């Protein structure tokens, strides 16, 4: 008999990464982690997937004191990966020879400081990576300076003369990310490093990958390995209130200066990708200060310096791109109505064809056959390797590790049903509904009403280790998740409509969507509805408390109390200035902030509220949750504050995540479903 899905299951379920394919397409390799609640430790090791045999085997052994991650192929039989050993200060790259099963992995790198964001050109044996260094110093010199500062500095002060002071969950320091390249060679059947790493951005004042969340997707190596294209923000005093990020190209020999491709456009750009013909493809936004503008697809010719926007009329915002073997077709992923689909775009005709219709696809890699290898997840399973036939559109799931497979097969997951209704502006609004997995005819069930953050984001048919709808379905709730006005994947106008309308269109959609679902599914109890949200969803929890009586309990995770207060404490000022019509420093702009500030309606708050916040959240600081808690407590409204000093905007640590789920389900269960905590919280 299938078992219901619990927080314990979610925390301990193995978590596979998106697989990486070998050059010949015969094998794929991926990392998979698994957490033990009993031991409070995580193992992370590698698995090898045979594409032809559709079989998977353990490639490295799991152990608590070591960890293997971020694998990639050096050639058809050599796998490189990061190896972590608790005895070493810096994770290094190790290599496994698949043709010599008895040969132990050997160490490839011996770099002195942490590095990452790896990219490799197989044909020319060029390895690129990022590391954080001081100015023009080398990795060795950076380590030396760190050691000198540690031994000589007597105080702990940080000094700042301009914004940003901190970003996401990290304070901005003197060290900056830079891209290094180094050549590899083979000697006696083993790979080795040739020479010293070249700092491509030395003396340029540019930083890439972007701090602090950039990765290998911020740059790409050309097919002939002569050039690297990368994205970088210009280091100026207005970085906190500007989104300008430009694409540059630079020679991999370390000679010459970066060449700006699109410096004339004061908006964000991303995702550089070289085709086999040498063309550079990237995404370009056009609106300054707006990080959720539509991504246009730009093709740049490095020889002629000409650039061209293709598929300009396509009202979707792609965020991942690769290209066919003949460089005639682009393959992109883009959100569409709650899915992340793969699309083929003919470069010459600019025609667009969807290749997939369901679930969430990512990690596109083109096989020697011309077909696409990718990872696909849904609300019912984490990433699973798939092969997509680009001609027939047939997509085939490959096998997964046996432990994960058995757990998924023995667990009852709810089907995710599409919900459509007429919302704000008389437009169609989409959402999801999941039936309680313990459903019995004739019974009434409470509702878990999930509100996504962003706000320019969406509930998609993908797997989540944080806000997973299956947890609430498994706890006996009917789960509702509405993609209100402002959500992504429904056209740019739909996304843009939330600006200066934080509490109007989305609130109308949420209230109307709830009414629609309650009417459609008569077994749902309108008197037992709990609303839960994080970030913007936390804002909406507070907004709902001041404007609605439909909810018996609320959960506010890292939300907004005062929109004006947020402006002066957040990291990215451009976000607030775009959403609320400028800076509140100017008196004429203050109305836009105050109009949608939950703080102005605290006198109406009556709904019991659980507040959760992370101490390292620099997007929405703890001031917001402390203020919310104070307003509730001072008025005698039942409330509880959970504080995670070591978490950021998200709760990521497994033990903390388990506590998060325990607190959330116990809170909403107290007011809507008193059986949920005892049945579904097994620590």
Describe the structure.
Residues 463-673 form the Peptidase S9 prolyl oligopeptidase catalytic domain. This is Dipeptidyl-peptidase V. One of its GO terms (molecular function) is serine-type endopeptidase activity. Keywords: Hydrolase, Protease, Signal. Belongs to the peptidase S9C family. The structure is a single chain. Helices cover 18% and strands 35% of the residues. It is built from 13 helices and 41 strands. The protein is globular, with a radius of gyration of 25 Å. Among the domains are: 1-110, Beta Barrel (Lipocalin), CATH 2.40.128; 112-269, no CATH class; 419-485 and 521-562 and 597-680, Alpha/Beta hydrolase fold, catalytic domain (Rossmann fold), CATH 3.40.50.1820. The strands form ten sheets. The protein has an eight-stranded mixed β-sheet, sandwiched between helices. Strands 2, 3, 4, 5 and 6 form a five-stranded antiparallel β-sheet that branches. It has 683 residues and is an alpha+beta fold. The longest helix is centred in the last third of the chain and has 19 residues, at 654-672.
Shape annotation: globular
CATH superfamily of the domain at 419-485 and 521-562 and 597-680: Alpha/Beta hydrolase fold, catalytic domain
Question: What ranges have pLDDT less than 50 throughout 5 or more consecutive residues?
Answer: 679-683
**In angstroms, what separates the terminal alpha carbons?**
22 Å
CATH class of the domain at 419-485 and 521-562 and 597-680: Alpha Beta
Number of helices: 13
Strand content: 25-35%
Q: Which structural class do the helices and strands define?
A: alpha+beta
Number of strand elements:
41
Strand line-up of the largest beta sheet: 34-35-37-36-38-39-40-41
The main β sheet shows up as: 8 strands, mixed
Estimated radius of gyration: 25 Å
CATH topology descriptor of the domain at 419-485 and 521-562 and 597-680:
Rossmann fold
Mean pLDDT, to the nearest integer, reads 97
CATH architecture of the domain at 419-485 and 521-562 and 597-680: 3-Layer(aba) Sandwich
Helical residues, percent: 10-25%
């Amino acid at each position: 008999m299938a078992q219901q899905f619990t927080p314990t299951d979610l925390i301990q379920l193995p978590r596979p990464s998106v697989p990486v394919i070998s050059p010949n397409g015969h094998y794929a390799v991926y990392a998979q982690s698994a957490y033990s609640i009993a031991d409070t430790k995580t193992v992370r090791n590698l698995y090898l997937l045979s594409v032809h045999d559709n079989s998977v085997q353990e490639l490295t052994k799991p152990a608590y004191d070591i960890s293997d991650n971020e694998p990639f192929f050096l050639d058809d039989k050599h796998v490189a990966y990061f190896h972590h050993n608790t005895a070493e200060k810096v994770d290094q790259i190790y290599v496994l020879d698949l043709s010599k099963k008895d040969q132990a992995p050997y160490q490839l790198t011996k770099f002195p400081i942490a590095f990452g964001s790896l990219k490799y050109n197989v044909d020319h044996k060029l390895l690129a990576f990022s590391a954080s260094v001081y100015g023009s110093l080398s990795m060795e010199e950076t380590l030396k300076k760190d050691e000198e500062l540690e031994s000589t500095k007597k105080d702990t002060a940080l000094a700042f003369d301009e914004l940003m002071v901190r970003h996401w969950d990290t304070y901005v320091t003197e060290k900056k990310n830079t891209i290094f390249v180094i050549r590899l060679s083979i000697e006696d059947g083993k790979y080795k490093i040739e020479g010293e790493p070249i700092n491509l951005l030395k003396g340029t004042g540019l930083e890439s990958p972007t701090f602090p969340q950039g990765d290998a997707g911020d740059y790409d190596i050309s097919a002939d390995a002569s050039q690297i294209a990368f994205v970088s923000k210009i280091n100026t005093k207005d970085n906190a209130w500007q989104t300008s990020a430009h694409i540059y190209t630079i020679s991999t020999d370390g000679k010459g200066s970066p060449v700006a491709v699109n410096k004339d456009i004061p908006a964000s750009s991303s995702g550089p990708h070289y085709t086999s013909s040498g063309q550079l493809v990237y995404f370009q936004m056009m609106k300054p200060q707006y990080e959720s503008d539509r991504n246009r697809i730009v093709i740049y010719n490095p020889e002629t310096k000409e650039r061209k926007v293709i598929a300009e009329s396509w009202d979707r915002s792609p965020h991942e791109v690769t290209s066919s073997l003949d460089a005639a077709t682009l393959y992109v992923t883009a959100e569409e109505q709650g899915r992340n689909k793969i699309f083929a775009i003919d470069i010459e005709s600019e025609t667009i064809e969807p290749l997939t219709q369901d679930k969430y696809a990512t990690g596109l890699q083109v096989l020697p056959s011309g077909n696409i290898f990718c990872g696909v997840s849904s609300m019912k399973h984490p990433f699973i390797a798939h092969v997509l036939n680009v001609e027939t559109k047939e997509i085939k799931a490959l096998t997964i590790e046996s432990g994960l497979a058995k757990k998924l097969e023995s667990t009852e997951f709810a089907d995710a049903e599409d919900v459509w209704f007429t919302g704000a502006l008389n437009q169609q609004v989409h959402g999801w509904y999941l039936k309680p997995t313990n459903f019995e005819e004739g019974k009434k069930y409470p509702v878990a009403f999930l509100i996504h953050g962003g706000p320019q984001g969406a509930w998609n048919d993908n797997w989540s280790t944080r806000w997973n709808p299956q947890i609430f379905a498994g706890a006996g709730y009917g789960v509702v998740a509405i993609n209100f006005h402002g959500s992504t994947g429904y056209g740019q106008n739909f996304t843009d409509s939330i600006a200066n309308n934080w509490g109007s269109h989305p609130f109308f959609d949420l209230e109307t969507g709830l009414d629609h679902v309650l009417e459609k599914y008569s077994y749902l109890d309108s008197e037992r509805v709990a609303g839960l949200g994080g970030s913007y969803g936390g804002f909406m929890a507070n907004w709902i408390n001041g404007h609605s009586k439909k909810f018996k309990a609320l959960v506010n995770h890292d939300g907004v109390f005062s929109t004006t207060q947020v402006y002066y404490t957040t990291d990215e000022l451009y976000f607030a200035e775009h959403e609320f019509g400028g800076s509140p420093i100017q008196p004429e702009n203050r109305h836009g902030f105050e109009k949608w500030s939950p703080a102005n309606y605290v006198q109406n708050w009556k709904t019991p509220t659980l507040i959760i916040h992370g101490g390292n959240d620099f997007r929405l600081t703890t001031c917001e949750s402390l203020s919310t808690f104070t307003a509730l407590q001072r008025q005698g409204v039942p409330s509880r504050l959970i504080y995670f000093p070591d978490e950021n905007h998200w709760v990521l640590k497994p033990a903390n995540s388990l506590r998060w789920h325990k607190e959330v389900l116990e809170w909403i269960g107290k007011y809507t479903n008193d059986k949920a905590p005892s049945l579904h919280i097994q620590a």
